[in-house]
Amino acid sequence: MKRLLIMIFVLCVVSTTYSQTQSKLNETAEKSSMKSDQEMEVVLKKIAFLYKDKKLFLEKLRVSQECWLKFRKAQLDALYPAKDKQAAYGSVFPTAYASEKDALNKLRIKQLMVWINGIEEGNVGAGSVKFKSQFKK
Predict the structure, then answer these.
(1) pLDDT tens digits for 28-45?
(2) Which residues fall within 8 angstroms of residue 15, CB to CB, at 6 or more apart?
(3) Domain-by-domain residue ranges, the chain?
(4) What is the pTM for the complete model shown?
(5) Backbone phi, psi, residue 78, to 5°
């Protein structure tokens, strides 16, 4: 019994110590989403620099990115379709929306990194991706 009371006391202390207001959670999630947006822009700029001699590829990448941004918006709209999102999903909506957007951004960044990291020689399906050995060290 004493052990149970100690556990309950510890849980109460920990939960109040680490609790945040919903507005703080919303703000934190939005900042994370904005940070991954900025990271994606940095990755795209680095790709543009590394492939500056590949104009057709860069144009296709630009179109791909525009389509991806439309996809991201459509995906978020499908996940949260209600017109009055606050009423439908409650005060947690901004946190959930920003967190999902952040997750999608991070997946896109991972997709884009192949053009920065390059691939190993001998990969016959390289397409527009440069081999690692083509990057100046």
Answers:
(1) 999 999 999 999 999 999
(2) none
(3) 2-134
(4) 0.81
(5) -70, -35
